[in-house]
Structures are given as C-alpha cells and as structure tokens.
Amino acid sequence: MSRFQTILAGELHAFGTLAEVMAKATPARSGDALAGVIAESDVERVAAQMVLADLPLKLFLTDLLIPYEIDDVTRLIVDSHDTAAFAPVSHMTVGQFRDWLLSDAADGPALSALAPGVMPEMVAAVSKLMRNRDLIAVARKIRVVTAFRTTLGLEGRIGSRLQPNHPADDLKGIVASTLDGLSFGVGDAVIGINPATDNIPTAMALLQMLDELRQSYDIPTQSCVLTHVTNAIEIINRGAPVDLVFQSVAGTQAANEGFGVTLPMLAEAHEAALSLRRGTVGQNVMYFETGQGAALSANAHHGIDQQTLETRAYAVCRTYDPLIVNTVVGFIGPEYLYDGKEIIRAGLEDHFCGKLLGLPMGCDVCYTNHSEADQNDMDVLMTLLAEARAHFLIGVPGADDIMLNYQSLSFHDIAYLRNSLGLRAAPEFEAWLMAMGIVSETGHLIESGAGALRLLEAAQ
Amino acid sequence: MSDVPSHDPWAKLRAATVARIGLGRSGAGLPTGAHLTFQYAHARARDAVQSALDVDALARDLAPQEVIRVASAAPDRATYLRRPDLGRRLASGEAETLNARAPCDVVFVIADGLSSAAVQAHAAAVVHACVPKMSGLSIGPVVIAAQARVAIGDEIGNLLGARLVVVLVGERPGLSVADSLGAYLTYDPRVGRRDSDRNCLSNIHAKGGMSPQEAARKIAWLTHAALTLGLTGTGLKEDSGQIETENAPRIGGA
C-alpha cells in the first residue's frame, strides 16, 4: 500500500513518491506538462493536494526529493536547516501549516523568526494548497529589510530596478534610458544593465559609466552589470567599481552547472564584493535572479515540478545575504508558463515562497510575445505584488526591452504604484528625488515635470 | 508633463536609442498616443506568432525550385507553443514523402518557427540568392515545414540524404521587429544533433538587419567551409572570424 493515497467517491488515488504528490498537487502549468509530471485531471490534482495536506512537515527532513549524495543544493538545504527555528511548527502537517500561516498568530516577527527553520520543499508544499489571495495575505505580513546605499523593504515602500538595456551597449543610449527612468523616480533598488556583449571590457566600461553618472548626480543607489559571477570576480580584481554581484541560479546542482556556477564560486564572489566596503547604509552585495523552468530547460529537473525546484533555488540565494532577488517570471516562454493566468500564479507563488524563506523577493513582471499574455496581465500581477509588498519590481522604458526582446513593466507603471497605491521609494532615494524636485513630499511625481527637465539640462 | 512639450527636451536623447523614452505621461499613465503605438507593436508581434504560414504563396515565391510540404508532430499552434519537442519532429507518415530521393549536398528547410511573417517575407529571397552562390553543389528540393522548429531539419536532412541542411526559421518577434529570419546550418544532419553542432545567422530583416543578399553570401561561405571541413558548430566558428557576430547565442530562438 502506498504511503501517499486517498479515496474520493470510491476511487483510489495513489501516488508513488513524495515528488509525485508535490508535482500533481501543483496548480496546472505548461512546464509540468512538458516534463510529464502534471496531474492527469483536476480531480487527481485535488486528490494530491488532500494527500499533501495530511503529510507532516517533518517528513521533508527525511524524505529528500533529490538525494543528499548527488546534489549540493540538497546538502546546503539539509545542513543549514535550523531545528530551533523549526520548533514552533515542527508538529504540524502541511495543511495545519497553511492554517497557521493565515492566522493572526503568524505575525511579522513570528514569520521572520521561522524563516531559517523552514526548508524550501516545505514552503513549496504549503503554497500548493494556497489560493492566490492566501499567497498575498501571508507575504504581506513578512518584512525583509536589506540595504546598500538605500534601505529596501521598509513598511509602505516598494523598490524598483531601472533597466536601461541597449542592443549594442551604446553608452549614450543607456544614459538616455537611465535619465528617463530617474525622471519617473525609478532606480532605488538598483540601476542594472543586462549587457548585450557578455565580456569583461564591456562590463567594465558600463560599470565605470554608471558609477560616474551616480556620483555626478549624487544619487543614493547602487549599480550592477548583470554579467556572469566569474566575470564579476575578475572585474573586482581589476579594480572596477562593483556595487552588486549578479548571478542567475537554479534549484539543482546540475542546473547551476548549466549556468556555469558552483556554490564555492558564489561564496568567493560574495567575499570579494564585501571586501570593497562600498555600501553606506548596509552591506548586502548580491543580486540573484531565478525563474520557474530553469532546471527543466537545462534538463536537470530530476522529475520534480518546476515550482518546487524554483523554491530550492531560494536556498542558494539566502546563503549569501542578497540585497535583492527576483523571479523573471514570464521570460522563459509559454512552454513553461503558457498564459497570463499561469504567469500571475507563478509570480505570486515565487514571491510568497521567497519571502517566507527570508529573501528580499522581487519580480520581473514580464512576458514574451509568444506567450498568451499581454500588458493587462502585467497590470494585474504588478498590482497584486505591490499589495503583497514585493521588495522591488523592474521597470524598462515604455515596458519594451529593446535588447532582450520581451516586455516588462514601464517606468510609468512604477509611478502608478506610487501614485495610486501610495507606496514610496526607499527613503534615501526618495529624499534625493525630493531635492531634485521630481517627487512631492507625499512621494507623488510632480505634475509640472520641472525636476525631470532639470535632470536633463544637467546632462546636456 | 501631461503631454510632450513643443520644445522637446528629449529630442537629443531619443536620437541615442530606439528605447521608448520621453513618452510623456498622463498622470502616471501613458499618453493615449504612446499607449496605442505600443498596442500596435504588440499586435504585430502577436500576429506574427499566431498567423498560419501561407504555404501556397511561399511555394509560388520559391518557383522554379521544387517544393515538398511537410508538417511537424504539433497538430496546431497552441500545442506547438506548449510543446517545443513536437515541433522538432515530423508528424507520423511524413517521412514517406521524403524517402527514395537521390542524395544531395545541400537541402533548404523553411520552418515557420515563431514568426510566419518572417518566413513569408524573406525566406524565398534568401533561397534564390543562395542558389547561384552554390554552383557545383547538388541542391535538393526545398522543404516547407509547418509548426516547425530548427531541429526538424535534422530529421528532414537525414531522410533526404543531404550532407548539410540549411534551416530558415522565423525568429521570436520583438516589438520593434516582428519579421526577423534566422538561418541554421547543420552538417551531417540526424536526429539528436545539439545546438552546439550548428552555425547560426540571425536578424535577417529589412529594418536595419541583414539583407537576403548578405545572408546568402554568409550562408554560401559557411556551406562551402562546412563541406570542406566536414563539420558545423563551434569548430567551424573558430575558423571564421568574419562571421563571429552572427554566431552569438540567442535567447529563445526557435
């Protein structure tokens, strides 16, 4: 007899492994169908959720989805598990854990204290039993504060990455997009460029330019060129002004190897960036990106559903005290998240799971042109994530990234979250925006646009 | 700045990038004009992905080349977008239409990929420009594959006994260019070839991209080099500095 089974209306639903229960309990998405792990019917999905709800959280400590011996992410998860922090929920089933998370007993301080005690798989499991509103309600209670030259994650605030990419890494073009973003009050989480040409000289030129721009306007923020971690180490050695080290990471050792990255590499880069002591109000120096489907696309998924693997990637992130982490939720394409409904669900799951694990979790609210999604879906997701108190969101000029050929949020959208929802920029950055005459005392963009013009005149 | 002022302070900066900067704003929203311009660009990109390839028109454009039509294992567009694996293989029974042909040096396969608009606009022109540059080589029939990705060329090339396959494929559309064509060359095509076994040209289009003539020159150069060296992929790239930029990996190609 299977350990994982239930009878519904006389029909037996049995599952062979914990991984199968997890996969089949997952709300439907194309990537799990592509991997062949999706539930075969809606009824089977609910049966798996019922089985999952009755499993003890403790089971995840011993029934490891990927064996300890073959995967360094599993080893990281097991070895860093904090038994004392786990104690308040250690007697619960997954279903009881959901009920507790939604209760008033699970307030901000209780959830922060719990973070080192929960494993990614426990968090992924409980998220599979939660509706979108549950994911928002719990995430909203959790506060994660990180800092470098700005302080992010404070009450009533939302950060933003200014993403001024250019297909030829043209410095003037990148400056033009950067000034546009600053005039909308965007850029308190980071001004971050994805380089079109991923080599060391290009990255150094871009870093130098961003640093000069930041210093000439005296902007309290941090910059980043999103190049491979091994490049970042070399760039630091060559003396370029590196604020944040970036890396894409995934939830299995094999998928990380596909990115050309190992845990010791990340530790080395973290140490190197810390040694520069460039932060003023904090020393969180890492920037990670993740996304559901990364492991499957690297053929490194071990038969596990993509949302559980995504959550495992957060164990990698939290080891290195990042300033910001974001899930690039709709970037990877419709074979992983098919439409707006799947993208919205995944964005809320990733945000919830990241925050429950103690991460400064943000999102690139985005889609590609072959996804069944449009800007209306992004409007819904950004509004929900703002209400869930995401750490930061990404903005690009007019929502159109001309280098990566996908759509994200626009600078206007970040301003909408500030104007309509009353969410403010990081305090250090907001003080600068006020001094420049870009936003008012309440954090709203000033209608005359005089501050933005001043910014442009100074650049001419 | 409820509208773009008459003296446009963004004019100078706008010249530095095609990014959508200096759009003005209505409150925190896009002004109506900029909003509709964006909607139009997205609609074009969506249509490029969703529209079916007009195979009859493409076959006419390819004349006098002999054309064979095949379908991938993806039965419709929605399945095709969800299941990249099905777009890489022929539908069952299609192999028979390709059997019993004399072996040849080169076969062109035209796959709709993620932009039928790109294939419709540029694929025939590239084939016509390539043929005179490949004198001395035997060229097989042109195969038009519907709901198909790059790797379908491996199975087709193998069935036709081709030494090398050139797959012309519609690339993932962006908002600025919705009809960009890519070309992938694979020596000794057979099922199971990896992306690192191929050479790639991208950005064949009319909005500042590569022209069909220029693409044909590069495809012919690569074809001759590949048939001489007996390989495509990373090994060929190292020996041909002049095509370095075209070999840059692309995210999310077909």
From TrEMBL, chain A:
Protein's name according to its UniProt entry: Ethanolamine ammonia-lyase large subunit
EC number(s) on file: 4.3.1.7
Required co-factors: adenosylcob(III)alamin
Binding residues for adenosylcob(III)alamin: 195, 247, 297, 403
Gene Ontology molecular function terms on file: cobalamin binding; ethanolamine ammonia-lyase activity
Record note on quaternary structure: The basic unit is a heterodimer which dimerizes to form tetramers. The heterotetramers trimerize; 6 large subunits form a core ring with 6 small subunits projecting outwards.
Family affiliation: Belongs to the EutB family.
Function as written in the Swiss-Prot or TrEMBL entry: Catalyzes the deamination of various vicinal amino-alcohols to oxo compounds. Allows this organism to utilize ethanolamine as the sole source of nitrogen and carbon in the presence of vitamin B12.
GO biological process: amino acid metabolic process; ethanolamine catabolic process
Gene3D superfamilies, per database record: Aldolase class I, ethanolamine ammonia-lyase heavy chain domain like, lyase
From TrEMBL, chain B:
Keyword Kinase: no
A Gene Ontology biological process term: amino acid metabolic process
Binding residue positions for adenosylcob(III)alamin: 150, 171, 200
Main location as per UniProt: other
Protein name: Ethanolamine ammonia-lyase small subunit
Domain of life of the native organism: Bacteria
Documented EC number(s): 4.3.1.7
Family: Belongs to the EutC family.
The record's free-text note on cofactor binding: Binds between the large and small subunits.
Alphabetical UniProt keywords: Bacterial microcompartment, Cobalamin, Cobalt, Lyase
The keyword Zinc belongs to this UniProt entry's keyword annotation: no
Classification of source organism: Bacteria, Pseudomonadati, Pseudomonadota, Alphaproteobacteria, Rhodobacterales
A GO CC term assigned to this protein in UniProt: ethanolamine degradation polyhedral organelle
Subcellular location(s) per record: Bacterial microcompartment
Pathway: Amine and polyamine degradation; ethanolamine degradation
Molecular function in Gene Ontology: cobalamin binding; ethanolamine ammonia-lyase activity
